[in-house]
Design brief:
single chain; 133 residues; mainly beta; six-stranded antiparallel β-barrel; 0% helix
Length: 133
């Protein structure tokens, strides 16, 4: 007989956001999609990788902003823009930008199974834990 998978109740706790990345397309062949990924440290010390995507009409996630942007290091954000390549085809005048912010600090969160709702200055954002880092 196998043990049942644990169910996590929605109890508030603190997570540390080690890094947060956002990915967007721009240009002639851009898709209306934004991807987000967060590297988190959970209260038990586990390193969780959480992600979400935004498409029109499904706004449950977005950028994790700092509660204290004036205290962020000047080099805490790094962005890289590259041409978009899909299925081996490079799209002219279309680019993908990935921005990563490090050292965002601690946030309150609740967890229901593998869904993590993080309370940010702009509201609650829901991410899905996909693995570890």
């Amino acid at each position: 007989m196998s043990a049942a998978a644990p169910t996590f109740a929605a109890k508030k706790f603190v997570v540390e956001v080690v890094s947060f990345s956002s990915q967007t397309d721009s240009g002639e062949h851009a898709q209306a999609y934004f991807g987000y990924e967060a590297k988190l440290v959970l209260p038990d010390g586990s390193h969780a990788l959480a992600s979400c995507g935004w498409v029109p009409g499904a706004i449950t996630c977005g950028n994790i902003e700092s509660f204290h942007p004036e205290k962020m290091a000047p080099d805490s954000k790094n962005c890289v823009t590259v041409p978009v390549v899909r299925n081996g085809q490079t799209f002219p005048n279309t680019f993908e930008t990935t921005c990563t912010v490090k050292g965002l600090g601690s946030y309150y969160a609740t967890r229901t199974n593998n869904d993590l709702k993080i309370s940010t200055p702009s509201g609650d954002l829901t991410f899905h834990i996909t693995g570890s880092w």
